[in-house]
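Supplementary Methods S3. Complex input for the FE(8)-S(7) cluster-bound model.
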Amino acid sequence: MKTNFEYLMKLHPCFAAGAKNYKGRVHLPVSPGCNIFCKFCKRSFNDTVNRPGVARGIISPSEAVETVRKAVALCPDITVAGVAGPGEPLATPYALETFRLIKKEFPDIIKCMSTNGLLLPDYAEDIIEAGIDSLTVTVNAINPDIQARICEGIVYGGKFVAGREAAEILIANQLSGIKKISGAGITVKVNTVLIPEINAGHVTDVSKTVAEHGASIFNIIPLIPQHGLSWCSAPDCGLISKARTEAEKYIKVFRHCQRCRADAAGIPGSRDISRMIYITPVIPE
Ligand code: CLF
Ligand code: SF4
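Predicted complex, serialized as structure tokens:
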């Protein structure tokens, strides 16, 4: 069963706790919009900046299937087709549509999605039905007062909700969603952005709580100080290492995150084939 954690640890580049496994992934930038407002988020379209939230452009689900064809032909070590932005995959229907198409043509490729978790309880059945094998949920706090300092607000039920109220809804949905998805046998990874000035002392609580709700692996991502959190600092190696060691008391920890672009392709931190499969936008002079 592809959702089995032991299977993913061998074949998924982002689920190997301990040694790096040298498998690859192709990210499909099919998701344009988002439904929450993380203060550190700065989405943009370009060919040069290496970080999450960046892609050369948005592609359609059928273009995504064509992209997977090209990617696996060029790099047979690609075992995962993922959707990680540049926006939120569940805010628009394109990610699930893409996974349904991929499931038909590439039954053996691992289907991976990265979500903020706001709509997880609503879409759990669709995620299961689309055949998603591994799901990442970004949970930056389980305390609403801390979460409210990281995220301005959410769009939920057709209206904007701000501050602590938004944080309460987001956290409740993330945790119940993780429980539902992991209960269905899908392996769940949790990403937490480590923000020294805001959640550094709280990351261990997050790791413990998400493990209790069924997550299998935890990834601490150092903050890139930008946008509304440009006043914060990037955590140093000592702080990252300490946070990972603390979290490891409760859950397996993934340590090789490359903070990938939304259109990354190849082997994380090693082989990059994204320029060969995505058309570089022509910027008018
Ligand atoms: Fe992509 Fe994310 Fe799936 Fe991996 S990336 S959707 S779980 S296939 Fe991996 Fe890249 Fe880190 Fe993400 S190294 S940013 S953890
Ligand atoms: Fe940006 Fe992702 Fe946060 Fe949405 S969930 S605001 S895309 S970081």
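The chain is about 35% helix and 20% strand. The chain has a mean pLDDT of 94.
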